[in-house]
Amino acid sequence: MGKQSKIAPNVLGNSILSLEILKDTSNVISAVPLVGAVLAAAIGVLKAIERTNNSQTSCKRLAQRTSELVQYIEKRVTQSLDIVDADIVRNLMDISKILNDIHKDVEQESRRRYITRLLRNSSISDKVNEYNEALDFAWRSFDICCLLSIDRRLRLDMRFDHNQDRIFRPSDLSLLEVCNDWHPADGCAGSVMLAKWQHRLVVLGASDVSMSSPRINHPRIARVLGYSHPAIPEKFYVVETERLSLAQCVGRITDTKMLLRVWMQTVLTSRSDFDQ
């Protein structure tokens, strides 16, 4: 029995030393200071447990769980620093608070007289079990938070959607000129701009039109290349195009009304450019 009581403090002391070294040497703390706060709170918990001289199994498990949790957090954040967002920061704040609350309670218990702690042994065990459950919950919530952050990051970085339509960002396109306004049949008016994407001329249409409609492949219908990223407030879609000479364009038109319309539009556009 005496041998076991000597081993536990040594193990606890080694855990404290390991966390102190980790806190002093971790490179991630400068980028995410809350990791340092979590480590400091965990060290406080272990030192408070050490002062209680409590050899209960639940206390040993609390010390072990605390040490494992914060080492896991430090390792996970170090390996995936690019996924740390506001939600993970808030989660680390919550974990730091849980550890500080445990530290406060254990510290108060360590200051009680030995006979008082002996009489309250059963209630102390129940309380420590609650702490262990809180740490288990904190571990699960941190993992879930990291997975959600990874999912958001993947969505932000995605290049194609499930229909294999390309996802565009404003930085992907070089705007050249505004062509004209358009008024489709569904009444969702928008503007059309000529742009360059990967050395190709495309038409960029600013509109809230849903991209869920079925695609139509036809040689006389412009192919939709993709649309704006869902996270971008300004919605637009991108259509392939090519520049044709006026003779080529007119030569393809068989309808007389359409021919006159294209001709008049060309004349008006040329006059407008000349006046400018």
From TrEMBL:
Gene3D superfamilies: Adaptor protein Cbl, N-terminal domain
Protein name in UniProt: Mixed lineage kinase domain-containing protein
Domain of life, per lineage: Eukaryota
GO BP annotations listed: cell surface receptor signaling pathway
Domain Mixed lineage kinase: 35-142
Pfam families: MLKL_N (PF22215)
